[in-house]
C-alpha cells in the first residue's frame, strides 16, 4: 500500500512516517513523506499535481496550522490553511480514488458539555475559536468532496499532543518552571482546563492499526470519525505537576483559572474526547504511561538549557 503523509516534518507527521516505516503493508519503499517543501498549505492547488506524480493509495493529512493564537489573530489565514487546503486535498484524492485520513482536533467542540463525559464522534461540533472553526471547515470540506466518491474518508480527532521534536507543553512547562524557580516565584498553571495529554507516537500507531486492519476502507466505516487519545484525563496543572515530578524541578505550583491569562484564542475548558475502539480491541494506554516514554528526551532537552 502506497501511503503519503502531509506535514511529514511536523510533530505528528514525523511520528506517522516513523510508524509507517515499520508497517509491513507499506512495502519496501516506505511511506511518501510530503513536507512543506513538497506541499505548502499556502499553495493548496499544488496538491493535485503531487497526487498525480506520486500516486498514493492512501493519504494521511497531518499538515495544519496549529498555532491557535496565530489562528485567532488571523482567522482568514487559518481558514485558508486548515479549511480550504484540506478541501483542495480532499477533492484531489476523491477525484482519483485515493483514500484519505484527515487529522482534526478536540477544538471543534465548545468545551461546555452538560455532562462531564468525553465528546463522542456523534456529538455536534460547536467550535468557539478560529482554530476550531477552521479545522471543522476542513472536516466538512472533506466530507463534501467524498460525498459519493468510491474512495474512503476517515476523520481522526485527537487532542493535547506532545512528543518529538520538543517545544511542546512538557518542555515549555519545564523551562517556565526553571525560570520561576530562579526568580523565586511560583509557577502559575491553568487548573480549570481539562483534557487528555496524548503522545504523537501512540496516535501514529493507532492510525497505522486502522490502516492495517482496513478499518478506513471497510464497510460500514467508509466515512468514519475516530477519536484517538490516550487514556485518562488531567487538568493542565495536574499535567504540569507530573512534568515537575519527572524532571525533578523543585518549584511551587499555583493553579490559576484560564481567564487569568491574556491570550488571543479561547480554548475549550473541557477538551476530553471519548476514545473510539481500535480494531484490536485494546485501548490506547494511559497518558501517564505514554508520558513516561517522553521523559528521557525531555530531561535531555532541559539539561541543554
Q: Provide the domain count.
A: 2
Looking across the biggest beta sheet, what order are the strands in?
A: 2-1-3-4-5-10
CATH architecture of the largest domain, by name, is 3-Layer(aba) Sandwich
Shape: globular
Q: Identify the CATH class of the largest domain.
A: Alpha Beta
Mean pLDDT: 94
Instruction: Please compute the radius of gyration using only Cα atoms.
Output: 19 Å
Helix run count: 9
Query: Using DSSP, what is the number of strands?
Result: 13
First-residue to last-residue Cα separation: 42 Å
Query: Strand share of the residues?
Result: 15-25%
Task: State the CATH topology of the largest domain.
Answer: Rossmann fold
CATH level 4 superfamily of the largest domain: NAD(P)-binding Rossmann-like Domain
Low-confidence stretches: none
Helix vs. strand class: alpha/beta
Give the helix proportion (percent range): 25-40%
The description of the largest β-sheet is: 6 strands, parallel
In short:
The chain is an alpha/beta fold.
What does this structure look like?
The chain has 305 residues and is α/β, with parallel strands linked by helices. It folds into two domains: 3-161 and 196-227, NAD(P)-binding Rossmann-like Domain (Rossmann fold), CATH 3.40.50; 166-195 and 233-269 and 286-304, UDP-galactose 4-epimerase, domain 1 (Alpha-Beta Complex), CATH 3.90.25.10. It is built from nine helices and 13 strands. It has helices at 11-21, 47-54, 68-73, 75-95, 130-145, 169-183, 200-212, 236-247, 287-304; strands at residues 3-6, 32-34, 58-61, 99-105, 153-158, 161-162, 187-190, 194-195, 198-199, 223-227, 234-235, 253-256, 270-271. The strands form four sheets. A six-stranded parallel sheet has the order 2-1-3-4-5-10, sandwiched between helices. It has a three-stranded mixed sheet with strand order 11-8-13. Strands 6-9 form a two-stranded parallel ribbon. α8 crosses α9. The mean pLDDT is 94.
